[in-house]
């Protein structure tokens, strides 16, 4: 029997959360409460922002909050210092024989972090502001957008460390860049410049200026937060990632979701704001306005999905 879902309490400010290996900031800076754009910074610059179990726990703490907090519209993930992420922290190492779980019980920590991003209805932009390898590459595969630095080095180096790909990358990577590019990167296990042809379209934008990577990510995030419907954007991503296997089945699903969205208040607002030449104010939520057939897929529960603690939320009003 599955445990009851964890109830999430939404903080007034994300900058006060007890995270350790990441930093959570509002954008624009110095805002006293949560803003439409939230910045998550991998915050171990002396270790090249190498991944730790604590980092996973930090992501699993904040991302369910982002998912349920209607103030948050877009998340930007970046790294402190000159590197984005040096992969798993090899100084910490891997579990010893005495610490090992049964294979059936183990849940890859990078995969748990990746799923936290994937399951969040708010889009994530990953600003790979410096070099990244291994888990530093795979943690952003479930994000909506990835931006890289042209001359920094990136690679899926698993074969050179004697391990296999992780963080659900066998699902995401070939779907993003095709099997040919994915096989080349994984078979060589080498690192390449951000503007290398071998990455295909993995990085939707590649920036020559290193500080410009985060700057561009924040520009995109602001535009998304101010001009797009959170519900419509989430449904679009769900339709692509969790679609049907045939054109006919896809047609039936697309038709049902679209027909529901035609009668949605965000659709009415989108049309009216366009006709009136003003900025739209989208307010639809998944809980109140989502299509009744959602989820149309069988949910696999790798750990109960968090829900908003409405009692605590009301007590703060």
From TrEMBL:
Pfam families, sorted: ECH_1
The record's CDD domains line, in alphabetical order, gives: crotonase-like
Going by the entry's taxonomy, the superkingdom of the source organism is recorded as Eukaryota
Q: Which InterPro entries match?
A: ClpP/crotonase-like_dom_sf (IPR029045), ECH/Chromodomain_protein (IPR051053), Enoyl-CoA_hydra/iso (IPR001753)
By sequence similarity, the record places it as follows: Belongs to the enoyl-CoA hydratase/isomerase family.
Protein name listed in UniProt: Enoyl-CoA hydratase
UniProt source species: Exophiala bonariae
């Amino acid at each position: 029997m599955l445990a009851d879902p964890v109830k999430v309490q939404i903080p007034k400010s994300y900058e006060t959360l007890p995270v350790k290996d990441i930093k959570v900031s509002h954008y624009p800076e110095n805002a006293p409460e949560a803003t439409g754009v939230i910045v998550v910074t991998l915050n171990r610059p002396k270790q090249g922002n190498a991944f730790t179990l604590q980092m996973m726990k930090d992501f699993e703490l904040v991302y369910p909050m982002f998912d349920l907090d209607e103030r948050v519209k877009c998340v930007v993930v970046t790294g402190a210092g000159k590197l984005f992420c040096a992969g798993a922290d090899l100084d910490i190492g891997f579990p010893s024989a005495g610490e090992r779980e049964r294979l059936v019980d183990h849940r890859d920590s990078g995969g748990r972090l990746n799923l936290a991003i994937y399951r969040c209805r708010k889009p994530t932009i990953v600003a790979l502001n410096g070099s990244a390898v291994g888990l530093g590459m795979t943690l952003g595969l479930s994000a909506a957008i990835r931006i890289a630095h042209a001359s920094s080095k990136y690679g899926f180096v698993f074969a050179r460390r004697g391990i296999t790909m992780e963080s659900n990358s066998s699902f995401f990577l070939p779907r993003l860049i095709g099997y040919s590019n994915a096989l080349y990167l994984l078979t060589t296990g080498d690192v390449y410049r951000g503007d290398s042809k071998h990455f295909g379209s993995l990085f939707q934008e590649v920036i020559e200026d290193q500080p410009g990577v985060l700057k561009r990510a924040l520009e995109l995030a602001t535009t998304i937060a101010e001009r797009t419907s959170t519900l419509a954007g989430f449904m679009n991503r769900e339709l692509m990632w969790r679609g049907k296997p045939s054109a006919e089945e896809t047609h039936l699903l697309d038709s049902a979701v679209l027909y529901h969205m035609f009668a949605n208040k965000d659709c009415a607002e989108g049309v009216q704001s366009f006709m009136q030449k003003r900025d739209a104010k989208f307010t639809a939520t998944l809980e109140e306005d989502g299509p009744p057939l959602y989820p149309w897929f069988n949910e696999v529960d790798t750990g109960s999905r968090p829900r908003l603690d409405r009692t605590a939320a009301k007590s703060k009003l």
